[in-house]
C-alpha cells in the first residue's frame, strides 16, 4: 500500500439517496479522497445539507447536486461511485469509462452475465462490452483483481455475507455442493428513500414480511459469486424479508454438511480464510451473530453451525446494508483499486447501542 | 356446538406473564367462561390491575393473584389454563387432573414423548402417565380429538404455522418427504416478561439475532406434529431469530417440491384443507404474508410458493405469538373441548396499524 | 339508554384511511350499527380487504369503496362518519345534513368559529350556517347536548385529553386562569396513510421532532373547548412532536397552580368529575400515564401533579389517537346521539404489550 | 491549542455501561488519548469485547475490566472519566484527585451545591471540599474555566440543551426572567444498561411515559446552570418522558417572551452566541429540530420560536444523550482541560438514517 502523491478526485452519483449519503459520511474521514462532484437525478440544485442534515457541516468543495452528465463528471473526477437505480448505471457508465473515469457501481448493473438481465432485472443490458471487464468487488475473495481495475461491480447487500460464508466451506469440502436455502432479513433502508406505503413507519413497524419471492435479483448473484470463488455452482433459493429496523442484513443459509464436518471445523475454515482481514469477524462456536453490532461499520459477522442430527450446515452472516452491504464496501474497493490501505476511510467502530 | 347450561369456571395460572395477560384480555369477551382463579408464582398478592394496567377496568370476581395450589384451583375452577414456565406445568398438572380439573397447558410440558424431554427441555418428565393422554391441540388438524379431552397440550408459536402449512402438502404428495429447513422470526414478547439484557429496548432495537441454534425445543415438536398429521416424519432444522417487534412470528419453511407441483397447486391444497376454518387465511398467489396483519387476532396466514427453477417449496406462516401462538389457540382448544362455538371469545379483528 | 327497534345504517366516508379502518374495526363489534356505505376519494372500486387486510374477513353488506356522492350516501345511510381530509367535510356535509343524514365529522371542519378557519386551517368556511348547529362531541363534558344532535364535531386527538384534564381544575379554582403550555407527543398514524419522506420508517425511527410550531390547528380548539367547559378562556401555546410510535398521544400541560392546591386535590377533582365514566381513567398520585396502556381501547388516562415549589400544575393525558382521539370517540358520540349505551362497540380492552 | 508532547493516559471507570462504551468508541479516534485503565464495579475480569462487541476489534493496551481502586487508577492514568452511578463518583473521586489524577465526572456528583444533594439525589455529599473546585463543564458557556482544571462536572443530558438555549436569551433580555417549563423526551439508553421491566423492549415500544415528576434531579442543575451563565435564576418545572428510541434527547422549554422579541431576534442571538462553535447548530427559522440527525455525533441542535400571540418563547434542543449529553461532551471537556483542539476525537458525523 502506498501514500498517493495527491488525493483522488471522486464523484458521488446518486448523492441524494441513503447509500449516497453514507458514501459521503464515510468519505469525509478518508485521507486520500476529495469529493469533487455530487450527482443526482432528483434534488438537482439542492445543497447537501438540505438533503442530508447530518452532513450539513461537511466542508466539501462542492455543495450543490448536479445532473450527472458524463462529460461534467469526467472533468471533475477521477473515480465515480454510481449509486443510481438499477439500469441507470448501465446507461451512464460507458461514457464515463470511455472518458477515462474509473467506476465503482453500487447498483446491480455489472454483477451478472448479460443473459441474466432480462429475467432478473427486467432489461436488456445496454453495455455488454463492459460486463466482461467488470471486477466483482468482494475484496476478501477477489481482491487480487482490484488493483488498477477500471470498473468494479460492488456486490449486493445479501450476496456479500452469503458468498463470504459459503464459498470457503465448499472449497474445503465441508459443505456439499447442491441446493442452498438462503433466508434473508433486512431493515427498511435497503428499500431506498422513495416514499411508498410499504415503507411507512405505521406500516413497517411490527411487520415481518417476505417480498419478491422467489424472483429476487440477488439470487443469481449469489450463485455466480459462489461459483467464481469456489468453482461450485449451487442452486440458490432466496427469500428476503423486511423486518422493522432501519439498517441491518442477516442471512441464514442452509446446506448439506459434509460427513464428519463439525461446528468447529466449519468455524476453523472460516477463521483461516479470513485471518488478518480487517472487516470479517468469524464468531467462535456458541456466539450468535447480531446485525446491531455492525451498525455504521464495515464489519461483517460470520457464524457457522453444524447440525449433525440432520446433516445440515447453517451459515449466518450479519452486516450493515449501507456500509459493508453498499457504501463501505465500495470505498474498500476504491482503496484496493488505488492500492491504498484497505481500511482508509473505514476505521469507525460500530455505534452501539 | 351448544350453549352451555352455565358458564365454565376457569383458572388462569401464570396470570402475571404476557400470555397470562392475553388469556385474560380474550376471556373478558368470552360468553361462556368465568375467570375464578388467578394463579402465579411471582406477584402473589398483587391485583391484576397492578400487573396488567390494560386490564385494570376488568370486572372479575377475583382480582388478586394467588399461589396455584392444586386443591385451591380445583375448588375454584373446572378448567385451568397453565401458562407457567416449562417444567412447572408438568409438576402441577397431575394434581389438577386427578382432582378432576381439565388442563390446557401452554408450556411445552405435554407436547413430546417422554424420551425427548431430557435432550430438548433439560429435565426428566415427572408425569409420564399423563403424556400419552394429552391431545396435541392444533384444532384445524386434530380437532376431532378435543371434545371432552381432559388434558390439552397447546402447541408452540413456531410449530403452529409450520405444521399447519406443511402437513397437508406432504399428505397430498406435493412436498417430498425429507429434510425441512425452517427459518423463524419472532418479536420480543415471545421471550416473556423476565428482564434480561437481551430483552432490553436498547439492546433489541435494530438487532436481528439468531438464538438457540441448533437446539431449540420447538424442533422435535414440528417433526412430531407433522408426523401426526401427515404420516411423514421429516427431519427439521430450525433456526429462530429475534427481530425488533413485540408481537409476531413468521416461519419460512423450505422443502423439496414434488415434480409438477406449482404455486397454484400448493395454494389450492391449503385452501381446500382449511376451507371454512375461521382462523386460517390462505393467501392467493402473489400476496405476501405479514405478521402485522394478525396482531391481537387469532388468525394465521399461510403462503405457499413453488420455485420450479430449483425444485423447492417455500411455505410461509405468520401469526401473533400471543394469540394463535399461545392464548388464542388455548381458548380455541377450550371451546372445542367443551363443544362450544370455536370462535367464542376470539372474534376480535386484528388491530392495524 | 334504549335498545333501538332496528340497527342504524351508517356510512363510513374516508374508509381507506387509518381512522376509517379503525371505525370499521370497532363498528364490527357494535350491536346496533350496520355499515351500509363505504366512501373514499382514493381507492374507489377497491374492496375493503385490499386496503385493510385486517378487515378482509369482515362480513359487511357492502365491500367496495365508492365515491361519496351525497345523494347516494343519503339513500344508503342514516348517519355518516366523515373521516375525510380537513376541508372536504365542510364541502360534503351540508348536502348530507340537508338530506336528513346525521353527520359525525372526524375532521376539524366544524370545531371552531368561522372566523378561525382562514388563520388556522387556511380556508374560508363554506358552510357557516351549520357551524353554529354543530355539537362539540366531547361526551364526558358536553354529553347532554348529544341526544338527537344532527351534526357532531368530533374533537381532535390532542385537544381531547387537554380539555378533559384542565377544564375541571379551572372550574374548581385549582388552576389559575392564564397561559397554558401544552407539549404534545404523537405517533405516526396521526399523520395519516399518505406516503411522505417524514413518515418513512427509515426517517421516523429514532427521531423526536417538533412540527407546525407555533401554528398547529389544535391550539384554538383547546382554547375554545376549555372555555366552553369552564367559562375560562386560556391562552394556549401548543408544541406537538412526532415520536417513533404508530399509535399514542401524550399531552403534558403546564399552568399556574392555585394557592393551596395539591396533587391530591387536583386528583380528587378529576376523580369526582369523571366518577362513573367508562372511558376516563384518573391515575392515583404517583402513577404515571402511559400511552401504550390505551392502545386499541377508548380509554384516556389523566394524571395531575402539583409542583408546590414553583406553583405549577402539570396535567398529563394519554390516549390512542385512532380510538379515543378519533374513531372510538366518534362511535361514543354516535351512541349518545342515538341514546344507546355509551360503550356499545367500545368494550374491547387495550392490547398489551 | 497545542500538540502535546505525548498522549494523555486515561482511565475509563464505568466501562461496562452504555456511556462507558461510548467513551471508548470515541476515544478510539482520539489522537492524543491512550486508554490505560478500564474500571467497573460489575463485569470485573471480563474483556471489553465480551461486554461491548462493537469494540471487540479495538486494539487497546488494556482489555480486562478491573475494580477501580484509586491507587491503581492513579498508577495507570493521568485523567479518569468517571461514568459511575450517582454517588459512587463522590466516594471515589477525592482519592483520585488527591493522588493527582484529573477527573471528568459524568455522574451528577459535582454539579450542585452541597445543600441540594439530600433533596435531589438522596444522599449527603461526602466530599464537600471538592464541590467548590469543580468546573461545570458546559464548554460553550464556561470553557474559559477549563484549561488546567482538575475536576470537571460533566453536565446532564437534559440540562445541556436547556442551559445552552435559554441562557443567551435571558442575558440578552429577549426572554423574561421567571418560571420556565421544560418538557423532556429521552430514549431508553439514558436509563442505562440495567435490566428492568420498564426498560424491556416489549414494555417500552409504543409507550410514551412521563417519569420522576416533579422531582427529577436535572431540575436544580438547569436552574443553577442558567444562573451561572446569565445571572438570572429561573424556577424550572421539568417533566421528562421516555419515548421509544434508543438514543436522543429533545427538550422543549417554554418561557415569557420579552416585548418585541421575534423568532428572528431569538435566532440571531443564539447564532451570535455560538458563532464558530463546532458542536452547536442553531436552526434557521422554520427548520425543526430532530434528535435523529445528531446520533453518534457531538452536535446539539437549537431552535427558537417566538409566539407573539401568547407572548411565549419556545426554545427546543436536540442531541444524542450518549454523546453531547455524556461521553462526547466529557471528551470535549478533556480536550479543553488539556488545551487540545476542542474537536479531537469528536469529528465523526451523525449516522443517518
Written description of the protein model:
- The structure is a homotetramer of 353-residue chains.
- Chain A is of the alpha/beta class.
- Chain A has two domains: 8-155 and 324-337, NAD(P)-binding Rossmann-like Domain (Rossmann fold), CATH 3.40.50; 159-320, Dihydrodipicolinate Reductase, domain 2.
- The first copy, chain A, contains twelve helices and 13 strands.
- Chain A has helices spanning 18-27, 48-51, 70-76, 88-98, 116-120, 128-131, 139-142, 159-171, 201-204, 218-230, 263-273, 323-337, and strands at residues 8-13, 33-39, 79-82, 102-105, 135-136, 151-153, 179-186, 209-210, 235-242, 249-256, 280-282, 300-307, 312-319.
- A seven-stranded mixed β-sheet of chain A has the order 8-9-7-10-13-12-11. A six-stranded parallel β-sheet of chain A has the order 2-1-3-4-6-5, sandwiched between helices.
- In chain A, strand 12 (300-307) and strand 13 (312-319) form a beta hairpin.
- In chain A, helix 3 (70-76) packs across helix 4 (88-98).
- Chain A is globular and about 60 Å long.
- The first copy, chain A, starts with 7 loop residues before the first strand and ends in a 16-residue tail after the last helix.
Amino acid at each position: 500500500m502506498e501514500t498517493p502523491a495527491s488525493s483522488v478526485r471522486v464523484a458521488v452519483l446518486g448523492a441524494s439517496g441513503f447509500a449516497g449519503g453514507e458514501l459521503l459520511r464515510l468519505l469525509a474521514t478518508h485521507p486520500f479522497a476529495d469529493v469533487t462532484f455530487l450527482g443526482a437525478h432528483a434534488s438537482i440544485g439542492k445543497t447537501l445539507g438540505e438533503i442530508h442534515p447530518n452532513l450539513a457541516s461537511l466542508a466539501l468543495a462542492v455543495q450543490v447536486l448536479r445532473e450527472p452528465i458524463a462529460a461534467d463528471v469526467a472533468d471533475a473526477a477521477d473515480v465515480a461511485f454510481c449509486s443510481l437505480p438499477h439500469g441507470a448505471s448501465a446507461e451512464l457508465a460507458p461514457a464515463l469509462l470511455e472518458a477515462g473515469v474509473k467506476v465503482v457501481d453500487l447498483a446491480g448493473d455489472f454483477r451478472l452475465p448479460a443473459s441474466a438481465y432480462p429475467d432478473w432485472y427486467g432489461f436488456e443490458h445496454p453495455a455488454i462490452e463492459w460486463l466482461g471487464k467488470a471486477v466483482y468487488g468482494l475484496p476478501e475473495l477477489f481482491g487480487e483483481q482490484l488493483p488498477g481495475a477500471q470498473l468494479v461491480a460492488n456486490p449486493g447487500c445479501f450476496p456479500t455475507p452469503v458468498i463470504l460464508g459459503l464459498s470457503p466451506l465448499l472449497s474445503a469440502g465441508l459443505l456439499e455442493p447442491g441446493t442452498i436455502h438462503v433466508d434473508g432479513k433486512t431493515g427498511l433502508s435497503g428499500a431506498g428513500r422513495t416514499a411508498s406505503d410499504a415503507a411507512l413507519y405505521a406500516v413497517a413497524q411490527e411487520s415481518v414480511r417476505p417480498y419478491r419471492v422467489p424472483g429476487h435479483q440477488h439470487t443469481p448473484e449469489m450463485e455466480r459469486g459462489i461459483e467464481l470463488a469456489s468453482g461450485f455452482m449451487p442452486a440458490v433459493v432466496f427469500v428476503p424479508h423486511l423486518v422493522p429496523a432501519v439498517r441491518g442484513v442477516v442471512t441464514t443459509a442452509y446446506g448439506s454438511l459434509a460427513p464428519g464436518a463439525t461446528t468447529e471445523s466449519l468455524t476453523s475454515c472460516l477463521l483461516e480464510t479470513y485471518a488478518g482481514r480487517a472487516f470479517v469477524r468469524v464468531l467462535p462456536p456458541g456466539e450468535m451473530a447480531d446485525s446491531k453490532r455492525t451498525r455504521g461499520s464495515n464489519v461483517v459477522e460470520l457464524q457457522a453451525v453444524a447440525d449433525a442430527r440432520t446433516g445440515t450446515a447453517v451459515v449466518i452472516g450479519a452486516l450493515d446494508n449501507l456500509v459493508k452491504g453498499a457504501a463501505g464496501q465500495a470505498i474498500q474497493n476504491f482503496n484496493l483499486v488505488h492500492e491504498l490501505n484497505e481500511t482508509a476511510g473505514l476505521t469507525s467502530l460500530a455505534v452501539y447501542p
